[in-house]
Design brief:
The protein is α+β, with helices and mostly antiparallel strands. Helix content is about 25%, strand content about 20%. It has a 7-stranded antiparallel sheet. A hairpin with a 2-residue loop joins strand 9 and strand 10. The two termini are about 30 Å apart.
């Protein structure tokens, strides 16, 4: 199994997604981005994480804003000024989710699970949440399988709380089939399978863990640990006996409650969401178009939504030093792609659009700004990955997008890179 160095993840993820979004080429789906990628067999190479790191979060998580900008062409017809006073203000509570959301639940799991799970593991094993790893998301249900890191000495392994069961059934029914082991309140199954192709030429493994409560009204708990093995036997850091002790421990109930999707996020998690949104508002108030604000998506834990008078849109932005993204998009011009993959220059017309805006600076910095204005969260194998999420978690109506004038103002705003970075830090907590 080939692993990407964690140090390379932010840059590689950002470049890969930017290429996907703007060059019109459809690359292979990454594992975890589609149903087939997270419901397959046991090989680790088919269970790759959907990693969202630093800059990649910028591209997937969408935000927008504007200041008044005037840029008239030689014929004085290309007026990029924002029209003020025509958009009614949007209240701080408009389209906000007062009750706990799906994304609140995932953020709570990311924050709380390491502290609950580490004491139940064998001595020397610790669990931590890495903000650069978000875990795969199912195109069938929109469920996220949160990722964590397990450390043993100086070695890290990936621990994934799985939201699907197909891969597990495949692992447990392989000849010979895994025999369930009785534990307090149910049964467990554990299976370690070797995999070839580790970065250092050695062996790799996947260990599949499943806890089935005797109370069938309770959901099963499925955990996958994988990585490069430190021994020729490709054995992972947790075996059957260790998992049995974990499940039998009194502290396991708190873990089970946290992972139970029927148990909503706590009031503390909701308050933390509002606190994050307050910090984001402080960073972006000066750059947003009149009548707009940002909020966290209730359906995609790492995404932002732009809230306007008519509804919400999923958004993403980035400001890179990669230079012009496409020869058809000249410097100092605004380009737009409605979804075909072909960028075309767009003129100011005050017509709101959903799609992707691109602006390459002409100041010698080599910077290119990307602004993505998309629809509500959706499901499916072929939808844009930036909007893949739990479709029923967002009840607000869909907004119409941004006008070219609003997009141009955002992309030409001073210190755009700093604003994006500050929003990322606020979202990371």
């Amino acid at each position: 199994m080939k692993h990407t160095s964690e140090n390379d993840i932010p840059e590689l993820a950002a470049r890969a997604l930017i290429n996907r979004l703007f060059d019109g080429v459809e690359p292979p789906h990454r594992a975890g981005m589609a149903e087939s990628s997270i419901t397959h067999g046991a090989e680790v190479s088919r269970r790759r994480v959907y990693t969202v790191a630093g800059t990649a979060v910028c591209v997937l998580a969408i935000a927008a804003g504007a200041v008044v900008v005037a840029n008239r062409g030689a014929d004085n017809r290309d007026d990029w000024s924002l029209v003020t006073g025509t958009v009614p203000p949007t209240s701080a509570s408009a389209f906000e989710d007062q009750a706990p959301t799906y994304s609140d639940k995932i953020r709570e799991i990311q924050a709380e699970l390491p502290g609950l799970l580490t004491p139940l593991l064998p001595a020397g094993l610790t669990v931590r949440y890495d903000t650069t790893r978000q875990g795969p998301i199912s195109s069938r249900t929109g469920d996220v399988s949160p990722d964590f890191m397990v450390r043993v000495g100086a070695k890290d392994y990936v621990l994934q709380i799985d939201a699907d069961n197909t891969g597990y059934e495949d692992a447990f029914t392989r000849n010979p089939a895994t025999v369930p082991v009785q534990v307090v309140g149910g049964t467990i199954r554990v299976r370690t399978l070797p995999s070839s192709g580790s970065d250092d030429g050695g062996s790799a493994f996947s260990t599949w863990f499943e806890y089935l409560p005797a109370d069938t009204s309770k959901p099963p708990i499925r955990i996958l640990i994988y990585g490069d093995s430190v021994s020729a036997s490709a054995q992972g850091p947790l075996d059957v006996e260790a998992f049995k002790k974990l499940v039998n421990a009194p502290g396991f109930k708190a873990v089970a409650d946290l992972l139970d999707p029927s148990v909503p996020a706590s009031a503390t998690a909701v308050r933390q969401r509002y606190e994050i949104e307050t910090r984001i508002a402080a960073e972006t108030a000066w750059i947003l178009p009149p009548g707009f604000r940002l909020k966290l998506s209730p359906a995609i834990p790492w995404a932002l939504e732009l809230v306007g008078p008519r509804g919400v849109n999923t958004f993403g932005w980035a400001d890179t030093a990669d230079g012009a993204p496409d020869p058809t998009c000249r410097k100092a011009t605004l380009c737009y792609d409605a979804g075909s993959g072909a960028l075309k220059q767009v003129a100011p017309d005050s017509k709101p659009r959903m799609g992707r805006y691109v602006y390459a600076a002409s100041d010698g910095s080599g910077k290119t700004g990307y602004l993505t204005v998309l629809g509500k969260p959706a499901l499916g194998m072929n939808i844009d990955p930036a909007v893949m999420g739990k479709a029923d978690a967002e009840a607000a109506p869909e907004g119409p997008g941004l006008t070219p004038q609003q997009a141009m103002a955002i992309l030409k705003a001073p210190n755009l890179s700093l604003v994006i970075a500050n929003v990322e830090r606020a979202m990371a907590g």
